[in-house]
Amino acid sequence: MEQDKMLDFVKALGHADRLRVIGVLTKAPANIKQVAEALNIPFRDAMNHLAFLEHIGAVRAQPAENKQDAIYELDTNNLENAARKQFEGQRQSYEPAPNLDEKARKVLKAYLNADGSIRQLPLQPGKLQVILDYLLQSFSPGVIYTEKEVNMILRRFNEDVSGLRRDLIDRGMMQRKSDGSQYWRPE
Q1: pTM value > 0.70
Q2: What is the CATH number of the domain that holds 161?
Q3: Which of 100, 148, 168, 173 maximizes the CB count within 10 A of its CB?
Q4: Domains in the chain: how many in total?
């Protein structure tokens, strides 16, 4: 049902004369005859356009004894809400690989942005481990990295590169020389 309303909304705004009707009503409320005259269109067309715009909630009619004398005005709140619903879309989220277990998938969806960057680091150790496992995939086993290279890779995911680097080292997921000049992922 909601999809039908959105389709009608798009149809309404996709018609040039209906947009012109809305334009007339932005200046002042008007009856069918006034709209038809302002747009130089047949009375019947103006009546049909107003009826459709009323159907989608873009305009509302102030009733009169004679339907032709009803005064139409824009329902700006309803129009804005419909436009917002139509164009906001759904917020995309990160879609983890299907081969991961359900717990890991939930954690990644909760803590990653659609582009795979980290929205927020979890405080719980188990959830942090899932995030660190995710980051570790960016490093090839046995390859030697400089601190600058490690920082560059981690920065794609989060600005707190020193914290992420420290977490990877502390958990034994990455190793480094004592002087910090070389980092590697154990095989």
Answers
A1: no
A2: 1.10.10
A3: 168
A4: 2
The domain in which residue 174 lies consists of 102-184
Residues 31 and 72 grouped into a single domain: yes
Q: What is d(CA 157, CA 118) in angstroms, rounded to the nearest whole number?
A: 5
93 assigned to some structural domain: no
Mark residue 181 as left, alpha or beta (left: phi above 0; alpha: psi -120 to 50; beta: remaining).
Answer: alpha
C-alpha distances in Å from residue 10, one per residue of 4, 35, 49, 84, 152 = 10, 21, 14, 12, 45
Domain for residue 95, yes or no? Answer: no
